[in-house]
Amino acid sequence: MPNICTQWPCSPPGPHKPDYLPSPTGVKTWRVSNANVGHSFMGTILAGSTNLNRILVPDMADGLTSSSNGGRSLTPLRSPPGVTAAAWNPVNVREMIAVGLNDAAQSTNGGISWQNIAASHGTSATTIAAADGHAAYAGVLQGGQARTYRSPDVGATWQPTS
After folding, report:
1. For the chain, how many structural domains are there in total?
2. CA triplet 138, 100, 95: central angle to 5 degrees?
3. How many CB atoms lie within 10 A of CB 33?
4. Are residues 106 and 46 in the same domain?
5. Is the peptide bond before 9 cis (omega within 30 degrees of 0)?
6. Are residues 149 and 75 in the same domain?
7. Do residues 150 and 135 lie in contact, with contact meaning Cβ atoms separated by under 8 Å?
8. Is the pTM of the predicted complex or chain greater than 0.85?
9. C-alpha to C-alpha distance for 95 and 147, rounded to whole angstroms
10. Are residue 38 and residue 109 in the same domain, yes or no?
11. 68 in helix, strand or coil?
């Protein structure tokens, strides 16, 4: 029987709190979803706009993970380890970026393979603009100061915004 949390804010019992995902009731109840993958979730969970069962979850240990069943099971996508954030192209969801504090990579085939991209050391957040599907943005911590970078080509090249 899964552990259920019935209060908000929810603090589920057990040592692996990141394994808890919301149930179909929204934030009213929570349940354990995965016992092996997902012990170190980080960043924002991405949900599909046309397929609500498709999600991408950044995981510090397993890299970017994917689910096609709303999180009931997660599969590592062989991205670089230490992923803190990810984005997929809203125009073509097979294009995605995964970033971590030391590495960044881009996939053009739904996460089957990855190519390293030149993001700044300290990158911890990223997104791809819905307006055109080409502009990407990244948040970077450099020397104690937060900076933003913009890429006009889905992460292939980056320029500081200020």
Report:
1. 2
2. 65
3. 21
4. yes
5. yes
6. yes
7. yes
8. no
9. 24
10. yes
11. coil
Angle in degrees, CA 60, 19, 24, rounded to 5: 125
Contact 74, 38 (CB under 8 A): yes
Domain range for residue 39? 34-160
CA angle 116, 119, 124 (to 5 degrees): 110
Per-residue pLDDT tens digits for 123-159: 888 888 888 888 988 888 888 888 899 999 888 888 9
* Cβ neighbours, 10 Å, residue 155: 28
**Residue-wise pLDDT tens digits, 54-76:** 888 888 877 888 888 888 888 88
Pairing outcome for strands 63-67 and 115-116: unpaired
Scored b (16 or more CB within 10 A) or e, 53-92 reads ebbbbbbbebbbbbbeebbeebebbebbbbbbbbbbbeee
